[in-house]
Amino acid sequence: MFCSVVISSFSFAQQEDSEEEALARMQAQLNQEVMSKPFLAEKPKEVDAYIKNMLAKNVTPPEYSGAHWRAGYTCRDLLRYNWTQYRNCRYYHRYHGRYYY
After folding, report:
1. How confident is the model at residue 79, as a pLDDT?
2. Per-residue DSSP letters for 12-65?
3. Cα–Cα distance for residue pair 20/14, rounded to 1 Å
4. Do 40 and 80 meet the contact criterion of CB atoms below 8 Å apart?
5. pLDDT of 56-91, one tens digit each?
6. Torsion sign, CA atoms 94, 79, 43, 57
7. End-to-end CA distance of the chain
8. Which residues lie below 8 Å from residue 100, measured CB to CB, with a gap of 6+?
9. What are the pLDDT digits (tens) for 18-44?
10. How far is 50 from 48, CA to CA, in rounded Å?
């Protein structure tokens, strides 16, 4: 009887270790996937400087020509794809008072 208790507790301990190892591997894989994607910060000072410069030059912003804009999006939604598109969207929104169609 003592042997069966020792064996079952040993197998339970091995299962806990294997679950912890599996979780650690999954976490490492998730971390790698997240870090492999570029991080695009908003950079509000740069965006404001760009908008001020373009307004001073009286440049009309063009309509959106990329592939990522969807109905209901805001400029922040473009930030996950491209910082320049985000910046241009912010200028378009400031100039026209609305988002892209």
Report:
1. 93
2. HHHHHHHHHHHHHHHHHHHHHHHHHS------HHHHHHHHHHHHHTTPPPPPP-
3. 10
4. yes
5. 999 999 999 999 999 999 999 999 999 999 999 999
6. negative
7. 75
8. 63, 64, 69, 73, 89, 92
9. 899 999 999 999 888 878 877 788 999
10. 5
